[in-house]
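To fix ideas, we quote verbatim one protein's residues and fold tokens.
>
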Amino acid sequence: MSIALEHLFDYDDFRKFMQDYFEEQKKMRSVFSHRFFAAKAGFSSSSYCLNVIRGRFNLTHKSIEKISKAMDFEPLQKEYFEALVQYNQAEQVDIREQAWKQILQIRKQIEFTHVTTREQAYFSKWYYPIIRELAVDLDWHEDYRVLARSLTPQITTEEARKAVKNLLEWGLLKKEGERYELTSQMLDAAEIPPIALRQIRHEYIQHAIGAVESMPKDERFATFTTLAMSKSSYDYAVGILEDARKKIIARASNDTNVERIYEMMLVAFPMSKMLTKEDEG
């Protein structure tokens, strides 16, 4: 994987990105050159990209498409590159500002680390996400017994030790001196096949049932409501719930006084088949 591509979202100048990409590729592959890339991208001029890098030419929509394909951009990388080009090349202030807003929006989007299928093991144990947060916010001083007993329900000392070891190896935790830190604020399972998440979801639901049945009301929140509504009303409800989830995540991300680790589940699902009605007439 190209280092320049991995850090594309850190660039504010697409010409600088292209320059770094070309220099890196030349070091990695002796066959690589401006002529080689031009042929791969479908440019008639072998010096086209060089002139772009030096600021002599601007990129057009058509040339962006060719470069994106030649560099094997993923959809979000292509979107970011297009916004970056518009930001750098725009002469009108409003267009430039709009492009910058798009750049910031994409950067915010990728702050959520999407765990790849190679790291599915992170979601194979219900306590991995909990350990990841506790390792950072708990003063446990490398005492895995303390860490293990801080979970509800508790896990074994060996399970806690292995969890921390794995999280470090996966790059989801890092150690700075005597303390542990997160390598990314949030994680989600957007790229994990649903079948791989079946077990952990089942375990979390079981823990939720246990919490509702045994924990005091002031320590947990649970509400159950049966509603009869249309598909449009359901979509409206989902929109509100998703907006609330994002607001809660944003507040939790900036919370400097962590006192406990919580699991939050928002669930809405049908309890009947689609109702059919006779035509009125």
